[in-house]
Amino acid sequence: MTTDTQKIKVAVCGACGRMGQEVIKAVNNQKDMELVAAIDISNAGKDIGEITENKACGVVIEDSLKDALLKSRADVIVDFTSPDIIFNNAKIALECGVSPVIGTTGLSDGQVKELEKLSKEKNISALIAPNFTTGAVLMMMFAQTAAKYFDNAEIIELHHNKKKDAPSGTAIKTAQMMAKNKSNFASGNVPEIELIKGARGGVSESDIHIHSVRMPGYMASQEVMFGSLGQVLTIRHDSVDRSCYMPGVVMAIRYVTSNNEFVYGLENIL
């Protein structure tokens, strides 16, 4: 944990990616934070400032996560890389004594549990959030509340066509939250015959169908549809610019440096 007079030392993994660059800009705009490391497999040896803001900032991009964390003595690492490497990245961070703030989705339930166990064993805080947008988190919370009053519900999530995992972590988390209030959201549905496999989407907790759309032009959107006799309620959130994630990321960075616990879901710190 940091003291009131110390700046939070932040490392960013996937620093050259679109989200990584947004995180770096956000960190540099905080008076209580300092960017101390930038990790990426591309542009190693270059100053990250020249990539993000066209001016050197003194932080050189490194391609070794472990070396960068040990050298920089970071307090927190923010990771928006890819589903195939995020799990190992988080383990490396915890082993190095650095609190991970994870925004990449695609972690399995087993991997989340393993990271929670390691976090507690190392006595190091960690935060995993399927979505850092405050509006999206509120949408999930509203859906959980609405779930008490409707017997039928489905989720449609829409993302750009470069997103690898489906369904999105936000959709999965939303279904999990809704399932806490009801065990079956397919009340009265007739036995179905899919003429094309997958036409009805994937089936999640409490028989919630999740439909994933991947299309150029979208960034991140989600609709939760509830139905009952004579009415349909739709709760929707749209992200139109990656800057919308940054207030949640900044909040998470501050949280893990002042609290010693494992957190899954931004709604738990709002």
Question: What does this protein structure show overall?
Answer:
With about 270 residues, the protein is α/β, with parallel strands linked by helices. Helices cover about 30% and strands about 25% of the residues. It has 8 helices and 12 strands. The protein starts with 7 loop residues before the first strand and ends in a 6-residue tail after the last strand.
CATH class of the largest domain: Alpha Beta
Largest sheet: 7 strands, parallel
Helix content: 25-40%
Indicate the low-confidence ranges by residue numbers.
none
Order of helices and strands: EHEHEHEHEHEHEHEEEEHE
Distance N terminus to C terminus? 20 Å
Q: How many domains in all?
A: 2
By DSSP (H or I, 4+ residues per run), the number of helices equals 8
Using the coordinates shown, work out and report the CATH topology of the largest domain. Rossmann fold
Arithmetic mean pLDDT: 94
Strand order of the largest sheet: 3-2-1-4-5-6-12
Query: Which second-level CATH architecture of the largest domain applies?
Result: 3-Layer(aba) Sandwich
SS-derived structural category: alpha/beta
Assign the CATH superfamily of the largest domain.
NAD(P)-binding Rossmann-like Domain
Number of strands: 12
| Spatial shape | elongated
Strand content bin: 15-25%
CA-based gyration radius = 20 Å
